[in-house]
Amino acid sequence: MSALRVEDLNVHYGTIHAVQGVSFSVGEREIVSIVGSNGAGKSTIMWTLAGVVGRSGGNIEIFGERLPRKPHEVVARGLALVPERRRLFTPLSVEENLVMGAYRRKKGKDLQDDMERCFQLFPILKQRMGQRAGTLSGGEQQMLAISRALMSRPRVLLLDEPSLGLAPIVVETLMETILRIRGEGMTVLLVEQNATQALEISDRGYILEAGRFQKSGPGPELARDPQIIKAYLGG
Ligand SMILES: Nc1ncnc2c1ncn2[C@@H]1O[C@H](COP(=O)(O)OP(=O)(O)O)[C@@H](O)[C@H]1O
Ligand SMILES: [Mg+2]
C-alpha cells in the first residue's frame, strides 16, 4: 500500500491551471522528490495535499484512505507540511514554536518526549530553546521548521524547498538529516528547485514542468541524466 497516492490532481487559481493532471505515489518509508523550476507548481501540490489550497479535481489517499480537505483534519491523518520559507512564528521562542507544532495534543510528558526526539536530531535547538525563532540562523530555522512539523507526529512529512537560502555545507547536513528521519520510519515527499542533492537522496523523482510531469525515475539516475542536468539542474 502507498503512503500517499495522488491521482489526476488538478488545481486552478481562477483561470490559471497550475497543476494539470498530476499522478504520483509515495511508498511507505520512501523519499520521493518533485523537481522543477520556479512556478512549475511544486508548492501548489504541497499546499493542496495540506488542505490549504482546494483542488478542482483528482483523488488523494493517505495509507489507502481518502485524504480530508481541511488542514487540521489532514494533520490528524498524519500529514505534516514544512512550508517554503519555513513560516515560523518568528517573534516566539524556539520552545513556543515546537509547542505550536503539537497543538492537537495536550501538554505533559508526551510533549516533552517529542521535544527530546527533535533534540536528538538537532541538538543545537535545545541550547536555543528560549531564543526567538527570528534570531536563529537560516539553517537553525529550517531545523526548527522540520521539528515543529515532527511535533504533530506525522507519518508522512512534506518538505517544500528546505534547502532554500542555505549554504551548501548546511544543505548537505540537511539531506543527511532527511535520510535519518526516513531511517526512523518516516515517509518523505520533498520538493526542490535546486535539485541535485534532493534527487541524490531520493528513491524516486518526478520532474515537473508547467504543472505536468515530464519525466520520472530513480532519484540518482535523474540527477545524472545529462538532459535533466541541462534543463533543470543548472548544469
Ligand atoms: N495564490 C495564487 N494565486 C494565483 N496564482 C498562483 C498562486 N500561487 C501560485 N500561483 C501560480 O501558480 C503557478 C505555480 O506556482 P507554485 O506552485 O508556487 O510553483 P513553484 O512552487 O513550483 O515555484 C505559478 O504560475 C504561480 O504564479
Ligand atoms: Mg514553491
Overview of the structural elements:
Helix 3 (94-101) runs parallel beside helix 6. The protein has one domain: Rossmann fold, CATH 3.40.50.300. It has helices spanning 42-49, 71-76, 94-101, 109-121, 123-127, 138-150, 168-183, 196-201, 219-223, 226-232, and strands at 2-13, 16-27, 31-35, 57-62, 65-66, 79-82, 156-160, 187-192, 204-209, 212-218. Strand 9 and strand 10 form a beta hairpin. The radius of gyration is 17 Å and the shape is globular. It is α/β, with parallel strands linked by helices and 235 residues long. It starts with a strand and ends with a helix. Residues 13, 16, 18, 36, 38-44 line the site of adenosine-5'-diphosphate. The site of adenosine-5'-diphosphate has 11 residues, from strand 2 and helix 1.
Structure characteristics:
single chain, 235 residues, alpha/beta, Rossmann fold, 6-stranded mixed sheet, 4-stranded antiparallel sheet, 10 helices, binds adenosine-5'-diphosphate, binds magnesium ion
